[in-house]
């Protein structure tokens, strides 16, 4: 069991978060030898999911810190011209706090602790988005299952109360929706038709310019203004901007049209809703990519100290020191967490996260739902604010319980994310059971102004976007930038074994 | 593409149940050899760690029913005890393998059990296998000890195998298939839940498996869009 780590690999990847997992799988899939390390005992880092027992690991301070003596590290140098650079252990998750609000449940739920799956960074997948496409192409999709986010709610402030209205997605739903008036239905249908035509004219190749031309002077102007000019009333505008587009605050028309088209494109692909949620939580995704990497030979070693880098005289990384062993490599990819302290990060964005366990849905329905609510309209100065509620339907909570995740960018001090959530709870007579709160820092490094070794790559950081398209695009860009002649997670060729199995299918054996 | 498409359709219609069987146990106990011997009838030479094996499929017959076993290998992630939790998800059966000629591989069983208990479904079929019985003289773990461990830890089935000379290899997987099929038939509710209709874009309880791109395109031209 105590095998030694290899002496040399092509690529070492530090951290098993989703971006690193995607990159590791892309590398090993294209034939590079990969060693994938994480100081944590668990997969996923800031992209992981925890149950109520393992959440302790998340809450406690970081483990396996590099406490190695300089002497020992010096001994691992192969020439005096090499330099040892200690790896960092930056704080990405901060202000962690978990508490039982209804204390009786701490005992009552004890036998069901492991049935929870609490996402650090909950997101959804867009049915026709880049993530789903990559999952399918790479066949990582065979390691996971999904469910439709089957309820989208739009919050409307009405006499100080937050009303949650169900948003119709498909044409069928629009016609039968009780929330919209006849006029609004017509308006929405007209808008959808306009989107379809706009997308058609915009075409695939000449993307942006043509589309902008059609929008004319509105392209760079406020989307809200544009919708107004189409004669769409306020309720409907709110629907379109916050729920169909799931847009950031005050988007311009071009961005708005693009987001709406993406949404409509995904509607009806797997079902009425355009969004999917992974069973057992979002933490599954990084594990699935790691599995693909492993299948193609990537070596996995978790829960060991990852200590230092070795720089050669050309200021290139030539090795990593982990678990007191030296592993030579040609390239290193690491998450922001591991970036040596000698490099100063640029501005970092804070993502505010709150998760409650409840025993009642925020909006009672005939069946259990997976719900998505964009509450950006209630927080005018915030870039991103949303709530995802899911539970037993996606196996992230035991039957009868729900996880309510709120995610927001925390620059808005005027309307607190948690206050809004509590208000929704109060109006629906929900008494939350357990609460978890923390911050995620999106660290970024200005690679133009910092002299990183030429073969060191920092993987994309945690982002607050609703879906995964950005992560995939960034990873593809990084991979293709380093290895322009290699394919990024190409379609798998059918394995010989499978074919042989299919041929042999008719000769099945008889048992008993 | 067409071939693949045809293949998938073929799978969907052809069998009564599809079961996911996962193998775990220390590196080098012969997990891959057991799977290969069973699915392909070969004993792979060399001692290299597993690369490129995801899962293998074999169809067996239980009574009059065609049953597909989808047998998953650890993909080498067990070398440093770094198996993903998602590997255990939705497994119908777990086969825990040790090497009868290697005491340390037996001593690690409690650790593996701990992992199974934390990640796998509670109703999962648990099977303990002592492999490499062909190594007669080098045996370090007597059969009695293995059987006792299996009883104490409430495994559903225990047997000793050899992937080299094929001892009990077919029996092992036939037992898995038979027991799972009988279980499945006994519980109507579970029958519906796990039925392989999950292969279509929306399964019976709304679970979605993303199919490969070819299949997706077919879905979207079939007018499922609204």
UniProtKB/TrEMBL annotation, chain A:
Gene Ontology MF terms: GDP-dissociation inhibitor activity; GTPase activator activity
SUPFAM superfamilies to which the protein is assigned, alphabetical: FAD/NAD(P)-binding domain
Localization of this protein: Cytoplasm
Chief location of this protein within or outside the cell: cytoplasm
Segments of skewed composition (Acidic residues): 498-512
Lineage: superkingdom: Eukaryota
Pfam families given in the database record: GDI
Entry GO CC: cytosol; nucleus; Rab-protein geranylgeranyltransferase complex
Example of a GO biological process term: small GTPase-mediated signal transduction
Positions of region (Disordered): 493-512
Alphabetically ordered keywords of this record: Cytoplasm, GTPase activation
Stated role: Substrate-binding subunit (component A) of the Rab geranylgeranyltransferase (GGTase) complex. Binds unprenylated Rab proteins and presents the substrate peptide to the catalytic component B. The component A is thought to be regenerated by transferring its prenylated Rab back to the donor membrane.
Family of this protein: Belongs to the Rab GDI family.
Alphabetical list of PANTHER family matching this protein: CHM, RAB ESCORT PROTEIN 1, RAB GDP-DISSOCIATION INHIBITOR
Protein name: Rab proteins geranylgeranyltransferase component A
Organism field: Caenorhabditis angaria
From TrEMBL, chain B:
Main location (coarse class): membrane
EC number: 3.6.5.2
One Gene Ontology cellular component annotation held by this UniProt entry: autophagosome membrane
Its membrane topology: Lipid-anchor
Obligatory cofactor(s): Mg(2+)
UniProtKB keywords: Cytoplasm, Cytoplasmic vesicle, Golgi apparatus, GTP-binding, Hydrolase, Lipoprotein, Lysosome, Magnesium, Membrane, Metal-binding, Methylation, Nucleotide-binding, Prenylation
Coiled coil start-end: none
Gene3D superfamilies (UniProt xref): P-loop containing nucleotide triphosphate hydrolases
UniProt enzyme class: hydrolase
Sequence similarity: Belongs to the small GTPase superfamily. Rab family.
Reported function: The small GTPases Rab are key regulators of intracellular membrane trafficking, from the formation of transport vesicles to their fusion with membranes. Rabs cycle between an inactive GDP-bound form and an active GTP-bound form that is able to recruit to membranes different sets of downstream effectors directly responsible for vesicle formation, movement, tethering and fusion. RAB30 is required for maintaining the structural integrity of the Golgi apparatus, possibly by mediating interactions with cytoplasmic scaffolding proteins.
The protein, known as: Ras-related protein Rab-30
């Amino acid at each position: 069991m105590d095998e030694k780590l290899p002496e040399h690999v092509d690529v070492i990847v530090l951290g098993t978060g989703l971006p690193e997992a995607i990159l590791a799988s892309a590398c090993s899939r294209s034939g590079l030898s990969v060693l994938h390390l994480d100081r944590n005992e668990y997969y996923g880092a800031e992209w992981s999911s925890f149950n109520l027992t393992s959440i302790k690991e998340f809450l406690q301070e970081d483990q396996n810190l590099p406490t190695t003596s300089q002497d020992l590290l010096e001994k691992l140098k192969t020439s005096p011209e090499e330099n040892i650079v200690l790896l960092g252990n930056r704080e990405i998750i901060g202000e962690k706090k978990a508490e039982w609000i209804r204390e009786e449940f701490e005992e009552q739920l004890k036998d069901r602790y492991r049935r929870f799956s609490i996402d650090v960074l909950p997101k959804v997948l867009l049915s026709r988005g880049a993530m789903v496409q990559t999952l399918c192409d790479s066949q990582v999709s065979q390691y996971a299952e999904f469910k439709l986010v089957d309820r989208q709610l739009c919050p409307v402030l009405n006499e100080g109360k937050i009303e949650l209205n169900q948003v119709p997605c498909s044409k069928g739903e629009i016609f039968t929706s009780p929330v919209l008036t006849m006029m609004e239905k017509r308006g929405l249908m007209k808008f959808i038709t306009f989107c379809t035509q706009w997308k058609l004219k915009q075409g695939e190749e000449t993307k942006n310019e043509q589309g902008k031309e059609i929008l004319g002077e509105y392209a760079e102007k406020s989307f809200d203004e544009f919708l107004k000019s189409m004669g769409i009333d306020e309720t409907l505008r709110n629907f379109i901007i916050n729920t169909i587009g799931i847009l950031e605050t005050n988007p311009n028309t071009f961005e708005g049209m693009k987001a709406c088209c993406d949404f409509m494109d995904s509607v009806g692909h797997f079902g009425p809703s355009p969004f999917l949620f992974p069973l057992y939580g979002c933490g599954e995704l990084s594990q699935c990519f790691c599995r693909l990497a492993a299948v193609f030979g990537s070596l996995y070693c978790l829960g060991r100290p990852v200590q230092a880098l070795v720089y050669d005289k050309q200021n290139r990384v030539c090795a990593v020191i982990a678990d007191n062993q030296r592993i030579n490599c040609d390239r290193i990819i690491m998450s922001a967490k591991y970036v040596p302290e000698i490099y100063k990060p640029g501005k970092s964005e804070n993502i505010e996260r709150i998760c409650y366990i409840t025993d009642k849905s925020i909006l009672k329905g005939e069946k259990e739902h997976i719900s998505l609510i964009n509450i950006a309209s209630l927080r005018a100065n915030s870039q991103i604010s949303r709530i995802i509620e899911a539970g037993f339907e996606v196996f992230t909570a035991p039957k009868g319980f729900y996880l309510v995740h709120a995610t927001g960018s925390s620059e808005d001090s005027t309307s607190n994310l948690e206050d809004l959530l509590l208000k929704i709870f109060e109006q629906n007579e929900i008494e939350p059971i357990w609460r978890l709160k923390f911050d995620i820092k999106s660290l970024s490094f200005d690679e133009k102004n910092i002299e990183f070794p030429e073969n060191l790559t920092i993987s994309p950081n945690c982002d607050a976007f609703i879906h995964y398209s950005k992560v995939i695009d960034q990873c593809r860009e990084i991979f293709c930038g380093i290895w322009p002649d290699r394919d990024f997670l190409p379609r798998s060729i059918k394995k010989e074994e499978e074919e042989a199995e299919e041929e042999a299918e008719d000769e099945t054996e008889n048992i008993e | 593409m067409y071939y693949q498409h045809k293949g998938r359709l073929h799978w969907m219609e052809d069998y009564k149940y599809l079961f996911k069987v996962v193998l775990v146990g220390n590196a080098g106990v012969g997990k891959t050899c057991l799977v290969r011997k069973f699915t392909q009838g070969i004993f792979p030479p060399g001692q290299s760690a597993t690369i490129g094996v995801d899962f293998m499929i074999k169809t067996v017959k239980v009574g009059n029913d065609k049953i597909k076993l989808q047998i998953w290998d650890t993909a080498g992630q067990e070398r440093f005890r770094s198996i993903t939790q998602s590997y255990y998800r939705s497994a119908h059966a777990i086969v825990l393998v040790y090497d009868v000629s290697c005491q340390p591989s037996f001593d690690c069983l409690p650790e593996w059990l701990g992992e199974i208990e934390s990640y796998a479904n509670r109703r999962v079929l648990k099977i303990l296998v002592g492999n490499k019985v062909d190594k007669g003289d080098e045996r370090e773990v007597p059969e009695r000890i293995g059987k006792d461990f299996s009883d104490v830890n409430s495994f559903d089935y225990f047997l000793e195998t050899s992937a080299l000379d094929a001892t009990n290899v077919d029996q092992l997987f036939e037992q898995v298939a038979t027991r799972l099929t009988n279980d499945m038939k006994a519980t109507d509710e579970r029958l519906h839940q796990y039925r392989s209709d999950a292969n279509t874009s929306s399964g019976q309880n709304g679970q979605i498996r993303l199919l490969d791109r070819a299949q997706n395109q077919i879905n979207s031209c079939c007018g499922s869009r609204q």
